[in-house]
Design brief:
single chain; 29% strand; two-stranded antiparallel sheet; four-stranded mixed β-sheet; alpha/beta; Macrophage Migration Inhibitory Factor; 33% helix
Length: 110
């Protein structure tokens, strides 16, 4: 159920890499492809009141995993965006509390 949000890059880039992202991450995170969501969020950056060029900011929301898995996901996402010509990539991970995440009236607590 990883929810991956891309900001600071072109919409077309997210569209083009979405399949590769899921294919390369599904085995690492041990989740079927249809559990992933890929989202594009348009963003503009400003420094001292002036428009500034964007760079990729990726947020991964998920049920927590080992640091080794997280490191692998960060590496894959970074490599994919470097392949797309982005020299700098920043990624943040956000963990859902299973008791606070619901689907169809049911929470995911163990």
């Amino acid at each position: 159920m990883p929810q991956i949000t891309f900001r600071g890059i072109k919409k077309e880039t997210v569209k083009n890499i979405s399949g590769r992202v899921v294919n390369e991450l599904k085995d690492i995170v041990n989740a079927p492809a249809d559990w992933f969501t890929i989202e594009y969020m348009y963003t503009e950056f400003f420094v001292d009141g002036e428009f500034s060029e964007n760079y990729p900011l990726i947020q991964v929301h998920w049920f927590g995993r080992d640091l080794e898995v997280q490191d692998s996901v960060a590496s894959v996402l970074t490599d994919i965006l470097i392949d797309e010509g982005y020299p700098e990539v920043e990624i943040s991970f956000h963990t859902f509390d299973r008791r606070s995440y619901y689907a169809n009236k049911r929470h995911f607590a163990e």
